[in-house]
Specification:
3-stranded antiparallel beta sheet; 6 strands; alpha+beta; 3 domains; globular; 43% helix; hpI Integrase, Chain A
Length: 278
Amino acid sequence: MGVRKYQSYGRTLWKVDAWLVRPDGPPIRLRQSKIPTREQAVALEAKLKTDAFEGQFFERLRMATETTAELLTQYEKLGAQENRAWSTESGRAAHLRRHLGQVRASALTVRHVEEYRVRRSTEKTRRGGPPSPATLDREVELLKRVLNHAVRLGTLRHNPIAEARLLRKPNVRRMVVDEEMFGRLFEASEEPLRPILVAAFDTGMRKREILDLRWEQVDLRNGTITLAPQDTKSEAPRLVMLTARLAGTLKALPRGIGAAPVFPNPKTGRAWEDLRRS
């Protein structure tokens, strides 16, 4: 509880975890992360407690009038700074803004989510078909994160769609890449992409887990890659074993230090944002 330090992508950040005493009810827990400095975190904690004591914090919660579009814009600014995959998230945010942007965020309900899915299911993706259940789940998950962020900031009292269930329907895989097909793909690819392809084929890691991989996560001596909760989509830590082929591939790469990307974009020296735009 209180002000605490943590590490994210090689950066030192601070978070506040505090119980605020309500003047007319039980206390409420407020948590906010990704604060750049300890001084800012301490100042925020003090302000929140002072406002709560004076009743201002809870009055703001009762008067929340922000629309979903406004909360998306606030979260978008944070995402552009902290989330390397925000270019993908921004497309999902556009759909949410188009269908739910004018709805007052505090008035959102599970019914809004169901109606959103129905409307999105009548639309076509770039591939010509309707969005898959997994795509709709990712859009709803983004909306939940936006609302949870608003709760941490004190803009909302609670997440009004926290009980909305995800579809959890697996996408049907229409093609499995075997060793022969992988070999042809490897030979046809450009040199900077080949180590990425080996990592993907040999480990089954997700695209962003591979593109965001840092040298501090790689243990060549023990043949492992360590994925912390903040590195995975499911927020569950994993230990990935290296194959002999992948270990040899990694040993042949220029070794970086600490948070340096394992697979840097040769044009920028930073982690890849989108392989399709290379």
